[in-house]
Amino acid sequence: xxxxxxxxxxxxxxxxxxxxxxxxxxxxxxxxxxxxxxxxxxxxxxxxxxxxxxxxxxxxxxxxxxxxxxxxxxxxxxxxxxxxxxxxxxxxxxxxxxxxxxxxxxxxxxxxxxxxxxxxxxxxxxxxxxxxxxxxxxxxxxxxxxxxxxxxxxxxxxxxxxxxxxxxxxxxxxxxxxxxxxxxxxxxxxxxxxxxxxxxxxxxxxxxxxxxxxxxxxxxx
Length: 221
Fold this sequence. Notes:
Number of strands: 3
Oligomer: single chain
Number of helices: 9
Strand content: 5-15%
């Protein structure tokens, strides 16, 4: 599912990615978040190519040359990571989701709850929950933590499109007042919390978590 109203930006992001632009560069060019760009271009083949600068430009940029090398290395290692992970088998998908919930999910009995500001994490969790458990879609709920001054309607549409959870199943958002003297908001799409109220499902998830954490480790070497 896509980010409603951002079709033009998605197409432009794919074009720039095909030209070896980094995720950070594309996000800055289009004025969107890096996480959104990552979702839009994940199917685009990418070959990292550090930008070439004339000696005069390089001198003016100074320390930015190091930043360019750092960005190129990060992109290269991301691509290596994708090659190493490749595709998940059904069992690997199950275990990856269990590990994710063990670290980020709610442990109190009664409801499966997962919160994260990264759209990739939320999409992974929702896909995992639906794949391995008998979910009643009408019982899924989402609540967004979003600072005052940010567009709640646009953010709600984004998360609804991404997760397939209808906007009618979003509960009242939490709207804290940002303190500009402390920090600027780093999460323009807020931090959503997905809740599925079902004790049986939560106990099944926690059973998998316990099984994973109690396994003997077969360390390499």
